[in-house]
Recover the amino acids of this structure.
């Protein structure tokens, strides 16, 4: 329905003059246990008793018998908890590129799970619904449940539920915007999504639609975007993304967009909250220095950059923010985590 609206809007504008002369309404119908990531020794001192099994994964357990016969056990590292991390994994460029799995990535996800790490998949993908994307990832061999996948569309629902919104987004995610009243005019907010490699992008970000969005901003609507990425990596090379449209509307209307997906602090905070993790003890793994590394560091997370997807060596050398670690691909992450946590 949404796609047909965009087409009919364009046709209406072309044939009858003023665009969007009629109001169209649209609906979206069509503990975990706390796990420290710190390498800092966790020290417990206790009287030895039968309920103090050190556990098979513990290391460096030392005991001392006092002159009075009391045994004190000091555990300087408890692997069964201390080495289990909360890890956020970017999707595009980390798990796959253009629908082709990155070699070893699926096995790495499985190994991270086997090692007890808590995972959440965080994506700025705006061209497929969460269910579609989860299905595609499963078809590529990844173990993933729908509710482990955090999308920018879900963040939009959190921020805009109940509001009248002019949404320039791909049709595929309209179902994920349930709770938002999608309108053609009289909007309280304008929401921009991302581009994809199909002709639908031409329709969503047509001049008429951007001009309609500009008009709504001039009338007082707030500007939101699912992300403002400049480009994304495809198997054919870098592809122009919709961040330029966000910047264009900001420039024209003299406003500043609110980013809902990465690198917004609220997006990362929500992901950490879903894992019941302290951001300072959680890790973000991504291929994007801006959206992934700088964004996650903004709320105090530790970060790992992969040399796949959008990774560019010269960008790392120029960047003011540096990740805590760099690995060749997700395949190397389990070993890196084992060595550094
Ligand atoms: Mg990415």
């Amino acid at each position: 329905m949404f796609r047909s609206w965009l087409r009919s809007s364009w046709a209406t504008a072309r044939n009858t003059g003023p665009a969007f002369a009629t109001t169209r309404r649209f609906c979206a119908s069509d503990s975990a246990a706390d796990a420290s990531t710190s390498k800092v020794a966790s020290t417990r001192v206790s009287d030895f008793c039968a309920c103090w099994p050190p556990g098979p994964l513990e290391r460096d357990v030392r005991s001392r018998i006092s002159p009075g016969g009391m045994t004190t056990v000091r555990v300087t590292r408890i692997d069964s908890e201390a080495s289990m991390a909360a890890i956020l994994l970017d999707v595009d460029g980390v798990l796959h590129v253009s629908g082709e799995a990155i070699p070893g990535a699926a096995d790495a996800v499985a190994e991270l799970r086997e090692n007890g790490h808590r995972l959440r998949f965080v994506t700025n993908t705006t061209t497929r619904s969460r269910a579609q994307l989860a299905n595609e990832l499963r078809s590529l061999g990844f173990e993933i449940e729908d509710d482990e996948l955090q999308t920018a569309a879900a963040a939009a629902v959190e921020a805009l539920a109940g509001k009248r919104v002019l949404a320039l987004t791909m049709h595929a995610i309209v179902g994920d915007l349930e709770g938002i009243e999608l309108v053609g005019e009289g909007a309280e907010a304008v929401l921009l999504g991302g581009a994809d490699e199909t002709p639908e992008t031409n329709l969503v970000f047509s001049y008429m639609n951007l001009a309609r969005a500009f008009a709504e901003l001039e009338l007082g609507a707030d500007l939101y975007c699912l992300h403002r990425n400049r480009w994304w990596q495809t198997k054919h090379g870098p592809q122009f993304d919709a961040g330029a449209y966000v910047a264009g509307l900001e420039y024209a209307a003299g406003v500043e967009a609110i980013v809902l997906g990465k690198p917004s602090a609220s997006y990362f905070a929500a992901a950490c909250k879903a894992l019941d993790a302290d951001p300072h003890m959680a890790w973000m793994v991504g291929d994007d220095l801006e959206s992934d590394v700088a964004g996650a560091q903004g709320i105090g997370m530790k970060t790992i950059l992969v040399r796949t997807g959008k990774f560019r060596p010269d960008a790392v050398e120029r960047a003011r923010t540096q990740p805590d670690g760099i690995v060749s691909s997700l395949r190397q992450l389990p070993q890196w985590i084992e060595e550094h946590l």
